[in-house]
Design goal:
Largest sheet: 5 strands, parallel
CATH architecture of the largest domain: 3-Layer(aba) Sandwich
Shape: globular
Number of domains: 4
CATH class of the largest domain: Alpha Beta
CATH topology of the largest domain: Rossmann fold
Strand content: 5-15%
Oligomer: single chain
Distance between the termini: 75 Å
Structural class: alpha/beta
């Protein structure tokens, strides 16, 4: 099966007719999400959108049955077979690298990353080249038109662009640029405004001795950026232009790597724009060992697309604190910087941050002058993704309202990570953009106790000895507050400001409040603490 370009299917070496457009689109969507289930609701929304007929579910089931027999002609009408499998309220297509070009591409890219990390650059280049040869065009050719479909195609094509960039740098370093030029020409045609792709094409042309064509390519993309987006070439294109004019510019040997002739391998210099916008880490952060271990494991995985993690949970449970703490732990791994936005999703109606303003903030943070920011949302998305293409950026998006507010802000660079916090799970971000979702529960008793104690210990009005003597009262207060981090933080702040107020008195007042009208959540809890007498 082929999806890296147009959608095609073969049986025993003979190409098959896939059927009507909507049936083909169902197959393409399942292949695009190969290895992950897609719910029937998502499939219906993607195929029909707001025009879904009442019989959409029945039509979808009919398409699935037809596709099953197309994939396995020997199946009887009621058999499910081994390819198109039911998973909960949806379907998943089970195909391996020998059956689907996308699966083989990802396998080869992972192998190339592994070879490169192990100090085998020649093996890595061979694997990159084999992976890139699988592409015949944009995956948009296999999908129906529509914003959701274009988002899926953009993410898949982004994997191709990232692999092209990695292969281009390695091929130039090993003095074999001609091996990746076909793929780079294809990528350049697919993404005429993608600065990192165009920069890789320009430098690879120059490395292959085609300086005139490289300079012509630079002029073309420079004019396109000015005409379509109203911006000048970014850092990556400027560096590429300089390397064409001066092939020795910025090339540094990589210790321990030699080409086959024994000469040091060189790579292009890193980009220099580096925003550092993370909010301060909490000095009283405690616990969350399991969540931090999960996030660390996700970051360690080899990926061909950006790592997107959605943290959801009720207000005050500690999502933002966890995301910020983890971002600080891994900030040094993102050499091109960290971006942060408060999307204000908790605000009703127009109080949340509009997408166009979020994009403006990101563009100016990346160094674009206000006067150069495009007027339209589409222009800003294109300019933003051009600026961060190929970069290793950490993007922290706090308090998202919904998927529609987040999706335009997602980078296409496979080297980037996005942490998104929201009160509701961002299901669409997982279904269509490959996000990993984490539901954040209340901290366990030990973590909540440590958080509360740390806040009190930082107060000059509370001694560690007093806290140790009142350990049982501290535990009771933590449980009476429902272990809500926000509620505990508010109460600790008031205790710190009122040194004559004893913990025992607070516990008694909380018990009385619990008997009369227990809080429904942290917002209720914040109001609940106000009657506490401050003596």
């Amino acid at each position: 099966m082929q999806i890296l370009g147009s959608l095609r299917l073969w049986q025993d070496g003979v190409e098959q007719e896939i059927g009507p457009p909507q049936q083909a689109y169902v197959l393409a969507l399942l292949l695009a999400r190969a290895g992950r289930p897609v719910t029937t609701d998502d499939l219906i929304d993607l195929v029909w959108g707001e025009d879904a007929p009442y019989s959409a579910l029945n039509i979808l089931h009919k398409y699935v049955g037809t596709l099953r027999r197309l994939l396995e002609p020997a199946l009887s009408p009621r058999e499910t077979g081994s390819y198109l499998i039911r998973r909960g309220n949806g379907y998943q297509i089970a195909v391996g690298p020998d059956e689907l070009d996308l699966a083989r591409f990802r396998m080869l890219v992972r192998a190339a990353h592994t070879s490169r990390a192990a100090g085998r650059p020649h093996d890595a280049l061979d694997q990159y080249v084999d992976a890139l040869r699988l592409w015949n065009g944009s995956t948009a050719d296999a999908l129906m038109r529509g914003s959701a479909a274009m988002s899926i195609a953009a993410a898949l094509d982004g994997e191709f662009y990232a692999a092209c960039g990695s292969a281009a740098g390695l091929a130039a370093a090993l003095r074999q640029p001609d091996r990746v030029l076909p793929a780079l020409r294809l990528a350049g045609g697919m993404a005429p405004l993608h600065e990192q792709v165009q920069a890789s094409l320009i430098t690879t042309l120059a490395a292959d001795g085609q300086q005139a064509e490289a300079l012509a390519a630079f002029r073309v993309v420079r004019d396109r950026l000015a005409d379509d987006l109203g911006i000048d070439p970014g850092q990556a294109l400027r560096e590429a232009h300089r390397r064409v004019l001066d092939p020795a510019y910025g090339m540094q040997p990589v210790p321990g790597e030699d080409d086959r002739a024994g000469r040091p391998v060189a790579v292009p210099p890193a980009l220099v724009t580096r925003p550092a916008q993370l909010p301060p880490d909490l000095p009283t952060f405690a616990g969350r060992a399991n969540e931090l271990a999960t996030l660390t494991g996700l970051l360690a995985e080899v990926r061909a697309s950006p790592l997107i993690v959605g943290l959801d949970g009720m207000g005050g449970v500690g999502k933002s604190a966890l995301a910020t703490h983890f971002a600080h732990l891994v900030a040094d791994e993102f050499a091109d910087g960290q971006l942060h936005l408060d999307l204000r999703g908790r605000a009703a109606g127009e109080g949340s941050l509009p997408v166009e303003e979020a994009l403006r903030a990101l563009l100016t943070s990346l160094g674009m002058p206000e006067s150069r920011v495009p007027a339209t949302v589409e222009g800003r998305i294109g300019a933003y993704r051009s600026l961060i293409a190929g970069r290793r950026i950490l993007l922290l998006l706090d308090d998202a309202r919904d998927v529609a507010q987040v999706r335009p802000l997602l980078p296409s660079s496979a080297r980037s990570m996005v942490l998104v916090s929201s009160r509701s799970p961002l299901i669409g971000l997982a279904a269509l953009d490959g996000a990993d979702l984490m539901h954040i529960e209340l901290p366990d008793a030990a973590s909540a106790r440590a958080l509360f104690r740390r806040r009190l210990e930082r107060s000059p009005n509370r001694s560690t000895a007093d806290l140790a003597a009142e350990a049982e009262v501290v535990d009771e207060i933590v449980e009476l507050c429902g272990r809500f981090p926000l509620a505990l933080a508010i109460l600790a702040a008031r205790l710190s400001a009122r040194p004559r107020l004893s913990l025992a008195a607070v516990a008694a007042e909380l018990r009385h409040g619990l008997r009369s009208s227990p809080p429904a959540g942290p917002a209720e809890g914040a109001r609940w603490f106000r009657p506490v007498r401050t003596g």
